[in-house]
Amino acid sequence: MTGSSSTPLRVGLVGYGLAGSVFHAPLISATEGLVLDTVVTSHPERQQQARAEFPDVRVAGTPDELFARAGELDLIVIASPNRTHVPLATAALEAGLPVVVDKPSPVRRPRRANWPPSRTSAACFSPSSRTVAGTTTSSPCAS
């Protein structure tokens, strides 16, 4: 992982719909210390849009292409449909990458995700209480 004061963190963004293109990509690129390295989207029009808006960005058609380059990245932001959050976050964690998920994952008490416990570290934001809680449990953010 890079991220020293002179080397920005390289961020991979999974999903380039509304959340990815309007919120995450512009905020990542505007934040000192971060660089938008890769955008993942399978939609050809969104791939063209990402290249037009961020000329230096790499574009991948699948998350697997991104995870294959895990050693070249420092952080993954998941801004894909809610149903994909748990499997994508799990794959990113298994690849050894820190993960930020756009919204709370759809994990509920009766069906908890199998998060890799040795690699799991999460900061969970609760919109209702506007609080952030750090956790290193085997099922982050589940209540």
From TrEMBL:
Report biased composition (Polar residues) as residue ranges. 117-143
A single Gene Ontology MF term assigned here is: nucleotide binding
InterPro entries linked: Gfo/Idh/MocA-like_OxRdtase_N, Gfo/Idh/MocA_oxidoreduct, NAD(P)-bd_dom_sf
Signal peptide bounds: none
Q: Please report the stretch or stretches of sequence annotated as the Gfo/Idh/MocA-like oxidoreductase N-terminal domain.
A: 9-104
Q: Which UniProt keywords apply?
A: Oxidoreductase
The record's annotation in SUPFAM superfamilies points to: NAD(P)-binding Rossmann-fold domains
> What is the protein's given name?
Gfo/Idh/MocA-like oxidoreductase N-terminal domain-containing protein
Organism this protein belongs to: Streptomyces haneummycinicus
